[in-house]
Design brief:
This protein is mostly beta strands and 416 residues long. It contains 5 helices and 27 strands. It has 2 domains: 155 residues, no CATH class; 159 residues, no CATH class. The chain has a 5-stranded antiparallel sheet with strand order 1-24-23-22-21, with no helix packed on it. Strands 4-3-2-27 form a 4-stranded antiparallel sheet, with no helix packed on it. A 4-stranded antiparallel sheet has the order 5-6-7-8, with no helix packed on it. The chain is globular and about 55 Å long.
């Protein structure tokens, strides 16, 4: 009896071991034959109520010796998003104005301040395509590629991903990319990535969030990076910039919110809007040094870009409780063109795009409003987001992070 029982147990153990061995071989075979892309790593779902520990911890080095106050501040910044909206919805929404024949017609691509979605709509406000992929509280930036692929900067958690036209995840760059991206002349990507680091001479040596310019391939593989502290401090001309334009208290010392690739003086450079110190700067991507920087009568600006040799950007708070879109002479900083009105105001975000006919597409983010204005400031096209959200018990318009006008002749076989 004992001998028979022992034989049965032995056979069971042998069978289990054989099954495990076969399973291991099959698993190894599947892994070996999987594509090398990063697409299989899902975004962790995040809500404002639950937070996202993985996103928070990504900013904090594992061996960091932080006080409880410092760690809470880093975690607060890691999950800091823009407001979902600030104004009550009006009775009118959608396309409210369209001066046909005077606008630069095309599709409008935009993202919202709440929701993992980007929308492409025509001039009448009809949605012609949507991209939707769960896992983030909202999308800060979307860039349309040929074939309908979309590069997306997510927020809460901060990540960079590429989707195909059917919203399938192609790859995920699982670092704390935030706010904006652009394409290099060779077709690769530049992004803004933040990391928690210490500098003995900055904010008493506590951990701060330093922004880096990161270059990636279109497959999402990191190529190079330029840290911003060194970019300024190693620049012969701008090494004392932080003394003349001191960092704010707290850990978010840069809050870089836009990046535009420009070819200037025969070199590829990145134009940055650095919100926390009211600075707009050019960084040479080969030397890693700041070659030009300005600050002026603007505050908390967004979306800096060069237009016909001038500097164009969204000035959020330079006029107090009123925002402006400013075009400045880069040498004198004199105002070349300006758009504002008494009710034009977005505290936390904003964007603009100069269109080929000279009009300007403007995103008044907090109000969920997009307008196209003429050179003389006349509103020729106006869209107000009909979608709403709730802040406590108050219903407000869902904000629009950024809008971009896409020409109708953009390759769009994928829309058929």
């Amino acid at each position: 009896m004992t001998r028979g029982f022992s034989l049965a147990v032995g056979l069971c153990i042998l069978a289990v071991a054989l099954v495990m061995a076969v399973g291991a071989v099959l698993f190894a075979f599947r892994k070996a034959n999987e594509p090398p892309a990063l697409a299989e790593e899902p975004l962790a779902y995040h809500t404002p109520e639950t937070g996202n520990a993985a996103a928070d911890d990504a900013l904090v080095p594992p061996d960091a010796e932080l006080t409880p106050e410092q760690r809470r501040e880093l975690e607060r910044i890691a999950t800091l998003g823009y407001v979902s909206g600030t104004v009550a919805p009006s009775e009118e929404s959608g396309v409210l104005r369209h001066e046909r024949g005077r606008t630069w017609d095309g599709y409008t691509l935009h993202t919202f301040s709440l929701g993992s979605k980007a929308v492409l709509m025509d001039m009448d406000g009809t949605v012609v395509h949507e991209w939707d992929h769960p896992g983030a509280e909202y999308w800060a930036r979307a860039r349309l590629l040929d074939g309908g692929d979309l590069l997306v900067v997510t927020s809460r958690p901060y990540r960079l991903m590429r989707l195909d036209a059917d919203s399938r995840l192609v790859w995920l760059y699982n670092k704390t990319a935030h706010h904006d991206i652009d394409l290099l002349p060779d077709g690769n990507i530049v992004a803004i990535v933040r990391e928690a680091v210490q500098f003995p001479h900055i904010n008493d040596g506590v951990y701060v969030l330093e922004d880096h310019i990161v270059a990636l391939t279109l497959d999402g593989q990191e190529l190079d990076r330029v840290p911003l502290v060194a970019a300024f401090e190693n620049s012969e001309r701008y090494s004392d910039w932080f003394e003349r334009h001191p960092f704010p208290d707290g850990v978010d010392i840069f809050h870089t919110n836009s990046i535009e690739v420009v070819e200037r003086d025969g070199r590829v450079q990145a134009l940055l809007s650095i919100r926390a110190i009211d600075t707009i700067a050019l960084v040479d991507l080969e030397s890693g040094l700041v070659t030009w920087a300005v600050a002026g009568e603007w505050r908390m600006q967004h979306e800096a870009m060069f237009i016909d040799g001038n500097l164009l950007f969204f000035d959020n708070l330079g006029a107090g409780k009123r925002s402006r879109v400013l075009e400045l002479d880069v040498e004198t900083l004199d105002v070349v063109w300006e758009y504002t009105d008494d009710d034009f105001y977005s505290k936390s975000a904003g964007a603009q795009q100069r269109l080929p006919n000279g009009n300007t597409l403007i995103t008044e983010s907090d109000k969920g409003r997009i307008i196209e204005v003429s050179k003389d400031g006349e509103v020729l096209w106006e869209y107000v987001n009909p979608k709403t959200t709730w802040r406590g018990q108050e219903e407000v318009v869902l904000g629009i992070m950024r809008a971009e006008r896409i020409p109708y002749d953009f390759p769009r076989d994928w829309l058929e």
